[in-house]
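Issue: ligand-bound run for zinc ion - logging full I/O for the record.

Environment: standard queue, default settings, no custom constraints.

Inputs:
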Amino acid sequence: MVSTTESADDGANDQGESRSENRSPALSATAGPVHIYPITGNTHGSRSKRRQVKNACTSCQKASKKCDDARPCLRCVKYGVHDECVDSPRKERKKGAKRGPYRKRDGAEMRGIQDTPTSPSQETEISLTLPPMEPLPLVAPGYTPGFYTRFPVPCGKREEPYPPPFYLAPAAPSASDASSPSAALMDAPASYPLYDQMTPGR
DNA sequence: TTATTCGGACGCTCAACAAT
DNA sequence: TTGTTGAGCGTCCGAATAAT
Ligand SMILES: [Zn+2]
Ligand SMILES: [Zn+2]
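Outputs:
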């Protein structure tokens, strides 16, 4: 049942990303890019939060499929529909709706989260203490910065699955700029290997 | 076997509300 | 002014179905 169909595809990759709670933290630190957020979920059993892009492209939105921050997004690259890869318009939220009185939370829940760490703050610490990435992000020609759950260029007839997702960092405009990793990496998750590190044939 | 569709669970944003 | 709550709306998982 291992297929590279879209559903399997997206699904499989998603699991690597948003369902990664099943990975061991140690593993994720080296080969397995996991969450970039301090997930409070645990490493056994319950699923952690799903990560969403801020704005899916029209194509992905239409298909209800996972998008990414790059444009064209991975899915559009895969299907060659670059034209459709534009941010989908968002409705304006209703305003003026009355809501009635709020219920106060007793706070037990909140404390419970802190006091009963199903998984000690380990996971959190991992994401918070990740070592700084080296300041030499490269960008592949033709691709915009963003998250890639696998290499976007088809290798042969079908795409080779590249298990570890990675982040395609924006190219540093200049050498001097490259010296400021924070700018270059922007919101790049430190746990994602860089594009050039993922290049096939490595 | 692979591609497409789609219902609905889950997650995020932000205006209304409440406290200070 | 600042913090909290929760409705509204968005993303995308995963299963069903269709096409090849
Ligand atoms: Zn997309
Ligand atoms: Zn797209």
